[in-house]
């Protein structure tokens, strides 16, 4: 299925006008970044990169798309002819999926002609804004859960295709499985789930429902014990499955208190290995509040797939440099006071202190984008060609100098060719591992849930000529 | 493309266990409703019904789906065989798309065997929860805009497919167009858009950009005048297009103040017909605040596609009645205190006073679902067979009696056959018209933006045997 029309109309009308006046071929650099983090958040998590690269490969204007554009008179014939042959032939670098980001972090940098690069704006933002919002929320939840596993169960509270992307992004942010079958199929994610209240209510009584479930799914299943009375539900669950019961699930009431009672009841009955799964409008705060309760697994729905109060990241796709009439690439930026952006192509690196903790996000202006593949990036000495900065526009002294710089941009697309390492199931797995490493690198306070500033300042490093 | 795996795993494992113990064939009634409106909201808007019916027609387990389920061991062979032949053969009634709803309104009622109906839970909720959240936000915005048109421009802040659904739902809620091309193609919606700041920045100066745009798109285009200085931008816009310029767009700064200045400048120059379009993080409150400014069109993005603070409706899909061992359909409900639901199949009607204003949402228990097609529903006398109620569990005296009852359920699917009136472009158009009528019927205070209770109480009408 083509992704080409998942696009704002103005991308195509700008293309038409630029083709007509000869500026469509100007070399351009577009940057994706966010001006601020959602209120109180200390970091964001890049997600969706792999999905964007997959979508890029089907960004083609076929007969269906062209016929509709022609019939509606959206653009003229010259533009239709350009679109019919459209292939992105430029280059894209960006933060590796799973990496954390801060305000102004250039998470994606697209370079190509105006024509080929402007068309990707809507698609790139749709994917990165949604997926990163979910991964950012997921990371706070898995952080609050410490080493207890979190499961994604929010499909019903998100658009049906967004639900698949949300499951993927949740795994990038540390979740270990999802209820969404299509996410399992498409991205190789572990899927989970056994039964809802409807299954108990379908039966004449709870005993019959539990017996049927155990007979079909085995004693290792998870029985939902709160349809009627939790204490009796647990009794009946043990009667049906024995002490080898896999888990019980609690989906209502005072989860912390109930978990303690149920744990006691299970232990008394000898079901010491039976786990307790809790669900029911959990978010990162509820998870943190359950830290002292004997809970084994958290199932999270609504709050996760709606970004826990921040359903989009507010990322923008801005032209930061373009070839002028003189053939030179020049920085450009909008002047309006409330929506300023900084022109010019920028590299990015994270400054780490002697202990390997992040102290600043460093944007490197005035030179080519600094790109290094992730594994190499952990080699401190490789970044040694970047001189120490003597301060930045927004950073503290310690943020601007000392330690070492870990480059953040990796090559994603070179001359139109997508690097396959970033897509498919392998891309998701790698992103999840990378997120853990990137989060572990943050200052200790960065994982607090309370509202605060970005965990590290973003500073600009001017290297001059 | 099949929609069958856009489903939580537990729907399939419940199916497996029910097939094994013979309960899968029990006749069931599932109801979609929401326990409460988002904080402060006075009504919700049903949207997504048409999309759900389209998705139902491709809810088929083909080779791709079955092979994956088999390889993963999600369900046993018997269940796979059932899924291979799956077709929904039951019946669905619901609120017509565009209709307003309140807490407990049974917006969709699905009747069939447990097996065929339980499988639809996730898909139905994903679609209705997302689309209704967007339409509900859209309705507040178009209400605040009174008779000024609102345009949907939020694709970049939503998942790329959710963006298409959001555009559709926005139109159900009163928006007159969208920037999203795929939404235009798929649902016949008007699409809009001309240029972004990137187009101005691409050029060596604003004059060149405006000249190029007018040359290509005509003087009737909309020029974005705030890239550098608004006053000079307007001068240059008029120089490029003349006083026949279609519109100028303001996307930053104090929109109200700027609109007044720009209107004055345009009028002074003789461009009295040139319109002013404003965009820039608008929501219903910002739109209301601009009521006194000389603004012609509102373009709304982020806030719309994220539901203006309520990105999901919290609708649930609950088993409310099922055939027992005795073959009788019996009401069922979960007992937990914080998530009660009312068992039993329920009809629904809106009680209108003598002036045709809604005074209550009436749930009719203890009898078959009351169904009437929309046009007939406006015939007061047709509902005359429903006796006046003498009060309800939650309503005022006036809510429970007097006036007339307008039935709310319409047939959507009969014996597995989808009524084509609800799908495609025609379905969207009809839903938008219906929403206007339904909103106009609400009590006068219902359209206030300030936080308050549901505009009318939901009452239960007990008809006895």
UniProtKB/TrEMBL annotation, chains A, B:
Gene Ontology molecular function: any one: glycosyltransferase activity
E.C. numbers: 6.3.4.21
UniProt protein name: Nicotinate phosphoribosyltransferase
Superkingdom of the organism of origin: Bacteria
One Pfam family, short name: NAPRTase_N
Membership in a protein family: Belongs to the NAPRTase family.
PTM comment: Transiently phosphorylated on a His residue during the reaction cycle. Phosphorylation strongly increases the affinity for substrates and increases the rate of nicotinate D-ribonucleotide production. Dephosphorylation regenerates the low-affinity form of the enzyme, leading to product release.
């Amino acid at each position: 299925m083509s992704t080409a029309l998942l696009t704002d109309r103005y991308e195509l009308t700008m293309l038409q006008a630029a083709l007509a006046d000869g500026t469509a071929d100007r070399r351009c650099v577009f940057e994706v970044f966010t001006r601020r983090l959602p209120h109180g958040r200390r970091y964001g998590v890049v997600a969706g990169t792999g999905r964007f690269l997959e979508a890029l490969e089907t960004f083609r204007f076929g007969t269906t798309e062209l016929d509709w554009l022609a019939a509606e008179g959206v653009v003229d014939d010259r533009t239709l002819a350009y679109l019919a042959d459209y292939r992105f032939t430029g280059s894209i670098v960006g933060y590796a999926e799973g990496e954390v980001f801060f305000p102004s972090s250039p998470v994606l940098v697209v370079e190509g002609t105006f024509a080929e690069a402007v068309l990707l704006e809507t698609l790139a933002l749709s994917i990165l804004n949604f997926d990163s919002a979910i991964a950012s929320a997921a990371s706070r939840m898995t952080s609050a859960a410490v080493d207890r596993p979190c499961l994604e169960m929010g499909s019903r509270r998100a658009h049906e295709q967004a639900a698949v992307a949300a499951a993927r992004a949740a795994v990038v942010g540390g979740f270990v499985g999802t209820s969404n079958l299509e996410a399992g199929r498409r991205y190789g994610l572990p899927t989970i789930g056994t039964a809802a209240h409807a299954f108990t209510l379908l039966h004449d009584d709870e005993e019959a429902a539990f017996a049927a479930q155990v007979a079909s799914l085995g004693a290792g299943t998870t029985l939902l014990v709160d349809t009627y009375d939790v204490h009796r539900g647990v009794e009946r669950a043990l009667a049906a499955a024995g002490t080898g019961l896999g888990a019980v699930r609690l989906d209502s009431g005072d989860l912390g208190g109930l978990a303690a009672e149920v744990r006691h009841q299970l232990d008394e009955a000898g079901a010491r290995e039976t786990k307790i799964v809790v669900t029911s409008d959990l978010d990162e705060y509820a998870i943190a509040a359950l830290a002292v309760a004997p809970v084994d697994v958290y199932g999270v729905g609504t709050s996760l797939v709606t970004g826990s109060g921040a359903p989009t990241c507010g990322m923008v796709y801005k032209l930061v440099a373009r070839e002028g009439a003189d053939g030179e690439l020049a920085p450009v930026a909008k002047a309006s006071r409330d929506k300023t952006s900084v022109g010019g192509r920028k590299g990015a690196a994270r400054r780490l202190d002697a202990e390997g903790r992040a102290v600043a996000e460093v944007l490197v202006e005035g030179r080519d984008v600094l790109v290094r593949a992730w594994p190499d990036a952990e080699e401190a000495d490789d970044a040694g060609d970047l001189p120490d900065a003597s301060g930045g526009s927004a950073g503290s002294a310690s943020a601007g100098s000392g330690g070492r710089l870990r480059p953040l941009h990796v090559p994603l697309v070179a001359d139109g060719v997508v690097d396959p390492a970033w897509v498919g199931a392998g891309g998701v797995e790698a992103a999840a591992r990378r997120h853990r490493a990137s989060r572990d690198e943050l200052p200790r306070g960065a994982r607090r849930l309370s509202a605060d500033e970005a965990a590290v300042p973003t500073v600009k490093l001017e290297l001059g000529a």
